[in-house]
Amino acid sequence: xxxxxxxxVAIVTGAAAMLGRAIVRAFVQAGAQVLAVDIDVPRGExxxxxxxxxxxxxxxxxxxxAALDALVAGALGTEGRIDFLVNNxxxxxxxxxxxxxxxxxxxxxxxxxxxxxxxQKTTEALAxxxxxxxxxxxxxxxxxxxxxxxxxxxxxxxxxxxxxxxASLAPRRVRVNSVSPGWTWSDALSRMTGDDRALADRVGAxxxxxxxxxxxxxVAQVVLxxxxxxxxxxxxxxxxxxGGFSMLGPDQGRSARxxxxxxx
Length: 264
Ligand SMILES: NC(=O)c1ccc[n+]([C@@H]2O[C@H](COP(=O)([O-])OP(=O)(O)OC[C@H]3O[C@@H](n4cnc5c(N)ncnc54)[C@H](O)[C@@H]3O)[C@@H](O)[C@H]2O)c1
Prior knowledge:
By secondary structure, the protein is an alpha/beta fold.
């Protein structure tokens, strides 16, 4: 059942790409007014044009404090309130252990610090509504991966930061949770597969017991749930939206006997 968010206002960052668009669409369908935030102006404007009056695109670099101040002031000026914040924007560039200091700081700035700044700048408005924040985690923040460091370190930090934010803001009745997708059909997966969804599902199936990669809307519905009144007593939690990816160990859920028999 779609939650009823009529009259409520959501800010969604990283809104112009496939996953962000799915989140924006889900909030619009639930009746919310959405400020869709991104640096990608053509795709952001196309998104807003397709969704009508309930979605407004705001061109904003979340790494700029001045831009975040303008975003929050603009939201309060035009909408009069902010109920939900979804910190979804990301940069994937990651040279792993070879990354220079400047690369580390740039990646953490967008992937971790900017969301924290936006939480800080929206706290008053969210507290006035008993609002909710959802930070985007990832299975990438939970397991080792050769060749990567910047992205997974930021994602792991987000899961911890979510708990700190939740504890700090609970007295003000602002709930803070995270969502951790597995492989999700997105711009990145589309590029890697030559836009072949069946290939993505086939390669992803052994890692995702439900047998496919995720859809943006699989993630969006859980974000929506966490912002809805149905989740009114949920804070400081991480919800995996990964088709079972994170419940498996390296044995992929198969017993030793099963592995040995399959080698015989
Ligand atoms: N795609 C997946 O398989 C997957 C898996 C797990 C978690 N996630 C998480 O989901 C979220 C979305 O991922 P995605 O795959 O859609 O990423 P993406 O790279 O396709 O989209 C990210 C969006 O963020 C925007 N952005 C980047 N820097 C920005 C800035 N400084 N200011 C404003 N906007 C900025 C980009 O323009 C882009 O539209 C991320 O938090 C990611 O970690 C994705």
